[in-house]
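User: I'm writing a tutorial on reading structure tokens. Could you give me a worked example: one chain, its sequence, then its tokens, then a sentence or two explaining what the tokens reveal?
Assistant: Sure. Here is the example chain.
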Amino acid sequence: MIAKLVQADEDTVRDAIHRFNEIGLACLDPQWAGGRPHLLSPDDEDFVIRTATTRPRKLGRPFTRWSLRKLAVCLRRVHGRVIRTGREALRSLLARRGTPLRRTKTWKESTDPDRDAKLDRPDRPGQLEPPQPHRPDPRNPPVHAPAQRPRPPPRRAGRPTR
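And here are its predicted structure tokens:
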């Protein structure tokens, strides 16, 4: 009778009644499975972040910046450690840890001898130095536009004007 009322199988209803008799109202609390288990351990995640924040040249790779695809391939080929993850999972891990990859802007190589030192600096040097107040140039004062009269509202078609 109860099974027909709730449109469920009789075995399901019977199991729910027995479970209620055993533990009471706690049987109504949903037992969420939590989805697929994590494929990467916290140590693996830390290794991925360390690899992503290291310049590819320092790891013997022939390019200047990581892309998600290149980083995923590199992580699969690390000696002594197998890290298999997709690009989207890799992107979300990097974003969650606050180290998103930037797109490569050029294929050209720099000839600057201090290039590596400059690239290892923080992205925003203003974080290390206090911001400088704006000082207007006394030789070239700003030009202000002359005051303008407010424009009348546009005339609408089909309405009489006053």
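What the tokens reveal: The chain has six helices and no strands. Helices lie at 2-6, 10-23, 42-53, 68-76, 87-96, 115-119.
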